[in-house]
Design a protein that fits this description.
This protein is mainly α and 121 residues long. The protein has one domain. 60% of the residues lie in helices and 0% in strands. The chain is built from six helices and no strands. The radius of gyration is 15 Å and the shape is globular.
Length: 121
């Protein structure tokens, strides 16, 4: 999968999440009158946050995006977009003290760790 295909997969995923939210197939804790621009901003903010967490964990989004022909990445993005722990995630990123502040609240932890490089002892 090249960069163009990867971008197409991510764009299609954003569209799918928006449609699901609009048709109430997925419930999210936001105002009922959420407009498209607010939703796009939420998706983009969570994508930036997800990539930052992955980087902090030693994982690369390029490898993760290829898992399951892009479906693994799309599932992880969906979990992140609709996650109720965004504040905890932001705090974790601010502290980065993983020894005293584990990322155990993150629904994508297992997914991230699949693509993390082993840490030297």
């Amino acid at each position: 999968m090249d960069g163009v295909q990867l971008t197409s997969v991510m764009t299609a995923h954003r569209l799918l999440c928006y449609r699901l939210a609009r048709t109430r197939q997925v419930k999210i804790e936001v105002e009922d009158a959420m407009d498209y621009q607010a939703y796009v901003e939420r998706v983009e903010a969570h994508e930036v946050q997800m990539r930052a967490v992955m980087s902090a964990r030693g994982a690369t989004h390029e490898m993760a995006a290829l898992s399951d022909a892009g479906l693994g990445w799309m599932s992880a993005q969906t979990r992140c977009i609709f996650c109720r722990n965004a504040d905890k995630c932001a705090s974790w990123m601010a502290d980065r003290d993983t020894a005293h502040n584990p990322l155990d609240f993150c629904p994508n932890l297992g997914f991230f760790d699949q693509f993390s490089e082993p840490k030297p002892d």
